[in-house]
Amino acid sequence: MGSVLCFSWGWGNAFETVYFESRNEIDAQVIDFIDQKGRATVAESNVPAIELIGVSKSFGPVQANKDIDLVVGKGSIHGIIGENGAGKSTLMSILYGFYHADSGTIKIDDKTTTIPDSKSAIAQGIGMVHQHFMLVDPFTVLENVILGAEGGALLKDGVANARRELKRLADEYDMTIDPDAVVGELPVGLQQRVEILKALYRGADILILDEPTGVLTPSEADHLFRILRVLRDQGKTVLLITHKLREIMDVTDMVSVMRRGEMVASRKTAQTSMEELAELMVGRSVLLEVDKPEVEVGKPLLKVEGLNVRDDRGVMRVKDVSFEVRAGEVLGIAGVSGNGQSELLAALSGITRAESGKMELSGETLDLSAAHNAAEMRTKGMSHVPEDRHRMGLVNKFAEYENSILGYHREPKYSKGMFLNKDAIRKEAKERIEKYDIRPPTTEMTAAKFSGGNQQKIVLAREIECNPDVLLIGQPTRGVDIGAIEYIHNRIMDMRAQGKAVLLVSVELEEIRSLSDRIIVMFDGNVVGERGPEATEQDLGLLMAGVNQEAAE
Amino acid sequence: MLDTIILVLDSTFRLSTPLLFACLAGLFSERSGIVDIGLEGKILGAAFAAAAAAYVFQSPWIGLLAGIMVSVMLALVHGYASISQRGNQVVSGVAINFLAAGLTVLLGQAWFSQGGRTPALSPATRFESLTLPFADTLANVPVLGPIYANLISGHNILVYASFAAVPLTWWIIFRTRFGLRLRAVGENPSAADTAGLSVTLLRYRATIICGILCGFSGAYLSVAQGAGFIKDMSAGKGFIALAALIFAKWKPVNAMFTCLLFGFLDALAIRLQGQEIPGIGEVPVQVFQALPYVLTVVLLAGFIGRAIPPKASGIPYVKERT
Amino acid sequence: MSKGQLPRWVDYGVLPALNLLAAFIISGLVVVVIGEDPFEAVKWLVWGALGYGEGFGYTLYYATNFIFTGLAVAVAFHAGLFNIGGEGQAYVGGLGIALVCLAMDRFVPWWVTFPFAIIGGAVFGAAWAFIPGYLQAKRGSHIVITTIMFNFIASALMVYLLSNILIPQGTMSPSSRNFEAGGQLPLLRNVFSSFDFGQSPVNLAFFLALAVCVVVWLLIWHTKLGYEIRSFGANPDAAAYAGISPVRITVVTMLISGALAGLMGINVVMGEQTRLLLDFAGGAGFVGIAVALMGRGHPIGIILASMLFGLLYQGGAELAFEIPTISRDMIVVIQALVILFAGALEHMFRPAVVAFFDRFSSSTAEA
Amino acid sequence: ETFKPAVVYDFGGRNDRSFNEAAYKGALQFEERTGIKFRDFEIQNPSQREQALRNFARRGLDPIITIGFAQATALEKVAKEFPDTHFAIVDAVVDLPNVRSIVFKEGEGSFLVGLLAGMTTETNTIGFVGGMDIPLIRKFACGYKQGAKYVKPDIQVLENMVGTTGAAWTDPLKGGELARSQFARGADIVFHAAGSTGTGVLQAAADEGKLGIGVDSNQNHLHPGSILTSMIKGVDVAVDKALTDAKEGKWSSGVEVLGLAENGVSWSYDEYNKPLITAEMQSAVEQAKMDIISGKVEVHDYMVDSTCPF
Ligand SMILES: Nc1ncnc2c1ncn2[C@@H]1O[C@H](COP(=O)(O)OP(=O)(O)OP(=O)(O)O)[C@@H](O)[C@H]1O
Ligand SMILES: Nc1ncnc2c1ncn2[C@@H]1O[C@H](COP(=O)(O)OP(=O)(O)OP(=O)(O)O)[C@@H](O)[C@H]1O
Ligand SMILES: [Mg+2]
Ligand SMILES: [Mg+2]
């Protein structure tokens, strides 16, 4: 199999041709019929709810979907998996009329159709819960639900109807929610509920859920799956996108795998395994084992005490959090995203001011409720790989070499008086490009044009090469392909081996468990428990859901 | 004393009216996510068209109609630039302001040869003051009489229209389907889009309403309050209306009170100018002339702090980042 | 070249040229509506601006104003700030320059006054931009609104000062007294007597403007401060992450922007009029917005765009002179259309040009 | 024979219905009478003043009449460059051998209309609305006050200015509001010296059933019955005369001060305001005029000491 080639950066045409040959032979095992063009049909689903044929879509230079074929049986739950950026959301958005395919055919209930806009999708019985919620924050639940389906020029009658209908739906699917609550003030779990209700309110027969569980605790996810099963049993069709193979095995009937914009395989869930799916997803057999040697743990380099952080809206997001990270140690912070991890990192790194709290950094005690800025923290030996490199870690308009000094631009080695020493900066950027294998190896291209993995490497190189004592690192492998993940994990282990203190925030339990020496779990701003790396996923999952077993016992 | 108050308030109404129309115009536009600093230009264009048409057709109503048409046309230019072409909305607004300032005078000169002015309008071709029923009979009733006769009665129809537009706007924005959708596209256009709504169409509709209201504002200046068009006669009202909109936090009833406040400041400045102020003495007139602007800054800075605009305002809606 | 991308020379050359062309075609239509011959109009416009030494001198003179205000707007743009207050800042900056000249002109030669006048203009202009900048940074008052308000306030302030304080006894015109030789910048026609600048007022401020362009270029692209300004403008979150204080950058950038606008007075007050007078900024602050946009925030672009607007101003005056039915307001219209097409509608022709280049490049690839 | 006259207007332009327009009218009168065409130009920004003058001079236009005090500095430069060209300036003094400076005693004319207002008022309160707050306008105001107090020493004169930018001359709405405010404060007659803005003042007077007083040109016809009189400033006459003098070879340079005596300023009396002016008023105003001309009454000139003692 041409698996090696898929790590080659960039314009992977060679990879496609090589891989394509091998694809059919895998597929042949499960797919009953393959036509001349390699299109597959699944026999049992005689009446497919959805059929996509040869759908392609590109965004400027990025081909998000390439000649996609997909068949979704009526009354089934169909999973779609694939790495970040594989094109799953794009494909679903095409199905929902949000984007227009550049080419290809869509069939709904065996009839060729076009979906020019979301309105038409809704009319054809498609509902979608988007990865990034499509809710109007200042609106109430009710207003969000009826938006676009108000049932009359005046709101009054529609609202009364909707209120009734909502209550019915809530009862039927066990999804209670206050219809007059302002959506922006609801927790994410409930916001998602609103999204689902929106789709059901419009009478969707086909429900698309794009990574619905990313923001849910395991028990909330279970509840969601129960609902999905009820829907399926009522004859509705569900398309479920997720990264979590376990969920796929749990709830779906069929699963399709996407990689790099292509649909590489479809399987009956019952006839496949997690191992096979993982392999299909990344194009080679995966062994996400990180080599974690014994390292002698030294004195605490970072100590946080009684940290409280309030957000712009005045909501307390971090509540009385205390911990320490020692030299040669990786402390993992697990938790469903949105439970205060981002605010914690922002406060520690000096980006936002805390309500109260102290931090001891390399022996110096800082009052975090006093004004600090990120530059100051850096001079004290703390560096920070932010969770969201697009929003924070990089200035997309800047060239690579300019990004390579972001936050360190005031360091003497980069300046000549008030001027930047561009020669020195470029020289160092060049060295790092080589060391971190950043591709393409140019200092002059703007950050926007590097792919996700390479962007992350630019940030990592910058934050690691300044030789900090303490490294804060948030979601280090989000949106990053498997080769880069390995590389990044190794770098983190190197830091640990060098006796640095690493604070790792990730929503990927796998990642946390394989890298950390200790794990603390955050829920609703609180640290709800501490575990060793050997803790089971179930154990951590419960903590993440806010169930503190120790307390319960 | 009561008389003085009534007179200042009376003047307040007259001065608030064009602001109120423009402010509501901006409200529709910005609620839908389109920032409009071209209000000024639209008012000016409308004032010119209204005066020209009122003169040519000898009818204020035709004038009003022409004013609305021209204002809507300018609004559509802004809409095309900022909705269809996803251009910078502030820049487009600046361009509209220049365009109106230049074209009105240029065409005015070409058509009427009076240095860009339109010929003066006779009373019959203007909106004249209406005397409400019983105003004269009730005038002698103490306190309420003068208030009714002098303050409430005796304005032209556009003044009443502007105040009537406030509850209407409120009702449209908060009680109709269109209003709900409008607010949605201003806050989160993607949400509206995925709900099956056309962001483009909604925003165009908001822009057109904005144009219509600016048309009223302009027509008021040239065929109701004034009697003909004079170059640059909008004199910054569009900008003040924008400031009022921010101050009103994009809410119609607030907008009315803010415009009344700005009108009142203006009226007060006019009233106090050239008079000894107790304890201070005579203040240079320039102080009064700058007063509304200074107060705007002070109010923006001190009282409302960070006013949070509709989240998507000023940002072109781009679905596919190609 | 990947699909959908354009070469730099198209992006920075062809597209702006197309936008300009569109603006001029519409302007031509306006000329037709007025009942004049647009080609005749263009002829006078170009001849008036470039056809003879004096006209060219005036073009340079106006361009000098626009370079200053254009840079002012551009610097603020780089920090993501929309400074519409260039007009007021230039006006108040002129006051600073005038005060320096009035204080020094009788005692020292111009080249002693000059640096102080530069400081005076910069400081006063900066001061006028400081409050809006500070309020934006600290209180979130929208800078577009506050700078507009400050234009009006500047106007009131200056009328008061000019007609009550600075006006010499017994004169009519609200302006300061004329500066003596020590407050007058040399005119280029006297400096370069070999070149015929006619009687045009283009003066040493032109070179100051060019020098300031270099300074701004260095500042924005080669200093740490410039780096911070650009970071903040391009991505405020990343700037905060990098420890760049938004308050500091907003205020500092507005100070620089105001100072640049303030320097415009050097050209008018110290160079041409040799006195402070009412409304001397004459809308240059607003033209600066167009100039900055067209010049894409880069000093070279700003110089070119300033020349274009200088040409419009001078050629337009000449045009109004030759064809009286085309009044001065025509220039305002052209200006508006240039701003509209080059600014707000800048991407209008892009899809067509991209399609053209794609077809072009694919056909060459096949060949 | 090439007699090619030119006129350069100031801001406000040819059709400001007031000052510049009066100059335009004067030139038109000359054109109609003699058939000689004239060129003219409207200033757009300060730098063009010099440029326009020079442009005309270079093309051999002569004489060149410049309107407005703001042109003085430019004229001073250009007149030196073209010593053989004849220039005239209205409202300012430029002391050069080839320049005729035409200035008016606005104070005297304003005195007369002030006097009329003083005699007419029933509320013992009258008003003044100026355009921009500049010395020239204060000169109008001062004469007006003096005239009013001359007949009614205890009269109250309200005084307002419209604005701080050039827009102050073109903001009839604000002018109207100011007038209304003065009416509200008890004034029943308002005199404006505010260019186009003044149309709003007169409109407000007409709308409110009060009286307005026009300025510069005879504005009585704008609202018959509502305009008490107009303070006429003979810019048209002066321009016509300058052109005629040049044409007939009678050009004289130097300062030409036009007051009541020279008929440079006056008050208007025509069919439109006949009903408003009583015989008593007419005789009083004519008497005052004679007294001023004879020097018996001295009208204070604001420009002399920048103060108004009234
Ligand atoms: N906006 C853009 N303009 C130009 N080139 C781009 C742009 N976005 C991506 N590219 C290039 O297209 C290629 C594919 O980008 P994409 O983000 O899909 O990479 P990827 O497959 O996720 O790579 P990685 O393995 O690093 O994650 C990259 O080489 C990148 O340099
Ligand atoms: N609106 C857009 N404009 C430009 N490029 C886009 C847009 N949306 C997606 N892309 C690009 O298309 C590719 C596929 O993105 P898509 O969001 O479909 O991936 P995904 O499989 O859903 O990933 P994830 O697991 O992270 O949700 C990526 O390279 C992405 O950068
Ligand atoms: Mg996705
Ligand atoms: Mg990627």
Secondary-structure map with pairings?
The complex is a heterotetramer of chains A (about 550), B (about 325), C (about 375) and D (about 300).
Chain A: H1 13-27, E1 33-34, E2 40-41, E3 48-59, E4 62-73, E5 77-82, H2 88-95, E6 103-108, E7 111-113, H3 118-123, E8 126-129, H4 141-146, H5 155-173, H6 188-201, E9 206-210, H7 218-233, E10 237-241, H8 245-251, E11 254-259, E12 262-268, H9 274-282, E13 300-310, E14 316-326, E15 329-334, H10 341-348, E16 356-361, E17 364-367, H11 374-379, E18 382-385, H12 389-393, H13 400-403, E19 415-416, E20 419-420, H14 422-435, H15 452-465, E21 470-474, H16 482-497, E22 501-505, H17 509-515, E23 518-523, E24 526-531, H18 537-544, H19 549-552
Parallel strand pairs in A: 5-10, 5-11, 8-9, 9-10, 15-22, 15-23, 18-21, 21-22
Antiparallel strand pairs in A: 1-2, 3-4, 3-6, 6-7, 11-12, 13-14, 13-16, 16-17, 19-20, 23-24
Helix pairs in contact in A: 15-16
Chain B: H1 2-31, H2 39-57, H3 60-84, H4 89-112, H5 135-138, H6 144-152, H7 157-175, H8 177-187, H9 189-194, H10 199-225, H11 237-247, H12 252-272, E1 276-277, E2 281-282, H13 285-303
Antiparallel strand pairs in B: 1-2
Chain D: E1 6-9, H1 19-34, E2 39-42, H2 47-58, E3 64-67, H3 72-81, E4 87-90, E5 99-104, H4 106-120, E6 125-132, H5 135-151, E7 156-163, H6 172-184, E8 189-193, H7 197-208, E9 211-216, E10 227-233, H8 235-247, E11 254-258, E12 265-267, H9 279-294, H10 302-305
Parallel strand pairs in D: 1-2, 1-3, 3-4, 4-5, 5-11, 6-7, 6-8, 8-9, 9-10
Antiparallel strand pairs in D: 10-12
Bound molecules: adenosine-5'-triphosphate (2 copies) and magnesium ion (2 copies).
